[in-house]
Amino acid sequence: MTHKAVQKLVIVGGGTAGWISAAAFARLLGKSLTIELVESDAIGTVGVGEATIPQIIRLNTILGLDEHDFVRRTNGTFKLGIEFVDWGSKGTRYLHTFGDAGMSLAGAPFHQHWLRAAQAGHDKSLWHYSLHQLAADHAKFGKLDRVGNTAMTGLAYAYHFDASLYAAYLRAYSEKLGVKRTEGMVSAVMRDGESGDITKIILDGGREVSGDFFIDCTGFRGLLIGQELGVGYQDWSHWLPCNSAQAVPSERLETLVPYTRATAKDAGWQWRIPLQHRTGNGHVYCSDFISDDEAARVLLDGLDTPAIADPRPIRFTTGRREQFWSHNCAAIGLSSGFLEPLESTSIHLIQSHVSRLLQLFPGTGNAAAERDEYNRRCAAEFEQIRDFLILHYHQTARKDSEFWRYCRNMAVPDSLTHKLALFASTGRVGRDADDLFREASWVQVMLGQGVMPQGHDPMATGLTGQQSEEFLTNVRKLIERAVDGLPTHQEYLDAHCPAAI
Ligand code: FAD
Q1: Is 16 in the pocket of ligand 1 (CB under 6 A)?
Q2: Which whole number is the average pLDDT over 404-420?
Q3: Cα separations in angstroms, 413 against 16, 320, 387, 420, 464
Q4: How far is the CA of 318 from the centre of ligand 1 (A)?
Q5: Domain 8-77+161-237+318-384, what architecture?
C-alpha cells in the first residue's frame, strides 16, 4: 500500500486548543502544509481556562509574540503561583510558587538547609525565604532574572488572561499566517474503507472539508477521536472525584494580586483569577457530595467582588484518552482528556501535545512508530500531572466533610505513595526527570499539605548551627532588598500593558 504525503491539515474546533494548534502549525509548518480550521459558533467554546504556568512563555517565544502586546490584548495579568487556602487543614494557607525558595549551598538544595534548621528549632517557614511569596504579599511584580549578584534565581511567572480574548488573539495571528477558518457544524465524518483513516468531514448544509491529517479540538465531545474512531477514555474520578464546575465572572479586585487563589470548600474548591477588567471565579466540586444549587450558592457566597453574570455549570470526567493519536487523527485539548484545573495544567498540555505532534508529524500517512511514541509520551505526562493533583486532595488533615474523608482515605497510585514516603523520610523528592513539576513544586505542596519530613539530607549538615542561621538571615535580607526594588503589579501593568478594553 502506498501512503499519501500529508499536505492538508484540518483542525476541528476553535477553542484554545484549536487556535494554539493552528498558530503553532502555521508558524512552523505553514510553508509545507495547507491548514484549515473548522468551528461552530452555534456550539461555542468551554469559555474557561484563564490561568497558566510558566511553560507558556516558551509557546509565546516560538510564536514570536510580543509579551506586553499579548497581555494588553487579553486583559491579562502576571502570575507568580497559586495560593492554596484551607487545603492541608482549615485555617492554613500556602503559596505554590513558580520559583525556588532561597538557593542551594554545598550540594544541598535550600529546603534541606531550612529543614535542618527547622528540626533544630528554627521557627520561620520555608516561605519566609521565598522571593515569590514576598512579592505576592506586597502585590508586586517586575522582571527580575536573579537576586542581586547571587546565584538565587529571580521571578518565574506565567499569565492570567481572558479565555475568549486569548482565542481571538490566536485566531488573528493564525489567519495572518494563512490559516483558513471555516464556520460550520460537523454533521458526518467520512473514512477510507481500507485504512480507516479520516478522509473528510461533512458540514451542515453538505459542504465538505477533506484533509490528510486531522486534529480533534472539539472539546469534551471528542467528535473525531471518541465518537468516530471509538478511542476509549480512562476514567480517573476515583482519584480526582470532582466532576462539575460552576463559573462566574465578578468585578475586578481592587488590588491586583499576582497569583491565582484556590480555596478548599466542603465538596471541592473555588478559584479566583485576577484580570485587569474582571475577576474569573469558579467552584469545582463533586456532585456526589453537593447539589448544583448548593454549589452555586457556595460560589456566590465566596466571591470577593460582586458577580456580573449568573453561574454557568460545566460537567467533566477527569481522565485521559486510551490513545491520543489514532489513525490520522490526534486529539488535543479537552478531547484528549482532562485533568481538573487545580494546577492550571490544561493549556500547558495543549501546548506540549502540539509541540510533540510537530516533532513527530508524519510526512506520509504511514506513521505507526511516530504514533506509538506520541501516545507513550502523552500518557506518561498525563500520569505525572495526575499524581501531583491527587497529592493536594489526599494529603490533608481535613475530616470535616464527607468529601474530605473520602479523599483522605482513598487508595492512591503506588507512584504517589512512594513519593510521599520518600519526602516524609528526609525531604527528598522522587520525581521523574521529565516531570512537569520541579523539585521546588513538590517540596512546597508536600510541606503546604502538612508533610513534615522526619530527617534531612546529610549534605545539609556541612554548616555549623551558627553558619546555617547566618545563611538563612542573609537569604532573607537579599530577597527583601530585591522586592523593595520592584514596582507593584498594577504599576507594572499600567506602565507596560494596560488592558485594551
Ligand atoms: P472548547 O473550548 O470546548 O472548544 C471546542 C471547539 O470545538 C469549539 O470551537 C466548538 O465550536 C468546536 N466544536 C465542537 N463540536 C463541533 C462540531 N460538531 N462541529 C464544529 N465544531 C465543533 N485550563 C488551564 O490551563 N487553566 C485553567 O485555569 C483552566 N480552568 C478550567 C476550568 C474548568 C472548569 C474547566 C472545565 C477547564 C479549565 N481549563 C483550564 C481547561 C481549558 O478550559 C481548556 O483546556 C481549553 O479551554 C481548551 O478547550 P478546547 O479548545 O479543547 O475545547
Answers
A1: yes
A2: 96
A3: 30, 16, 7, 11, 40
A4: 14
A5: 3-Layer(bba) Sandwich (3.50)
